[in-house]
From TrEMBL:
The keyword Nucleotide-binding appears for this protein: no
Organism from which the protein derives: Acorus gramineus
Gene Ontology biological process terms in this record: mRNA processing
Protein name: RNA polymerase II subunit A C-terminal domain phosphatase SSU72
Entry keyword set: Hydrolase, mRNA processing, Nucleus, Protein phosphatase
Cellular location(s): Nucleus
InterPro entries referenced in this protein's UniProt entry, alphabetically: RNA_pol_II_suA
Key word Kinase present: no
EC number: 3.1.3.16
Reaction catalysis annotation: O-phospho-L-seryl-[protein] + H2O = L-seryl-[protein] + phosphate; O-phospho-L-threonyl-[protein] + H2O = L-threonyl-[protein] + phosphate
Domain of life (superkingdom): Eukaryota
Family membership: Belongs to the SSU72 phosphatase family.
Annotated Gene Ontology cellular component terms: nucleus
An annotated Gene Ontology molecular function: protein serine/threonine phosphatase activity
Length: 49
């Protein structure tokens, strides 16, 4: 059995916020995977601006 970290993030529903959120999400996932050697699942939820 392996550990799994689940993170829910909310971003505003517009192009700029989505692009910034995607970059930050990718970076966060990479850092957590490297530091803790676990699988990371991140869910993005859009919030209407």
């Amino acid at each position: 059995m392996k550990s799994v970290l689940v993170i829910n993030l909310e971003v505003k529903d517009n192009h700029e916020e989505a692009a910034a959120g995607a970059k930050l999400t990718f970076d966060l996932r990479q850092e957590v995977r490297v530091l803790f050697k676990i699988y990371v699942c991140i869910f993005l939820k859009t919030a209407h601006a």
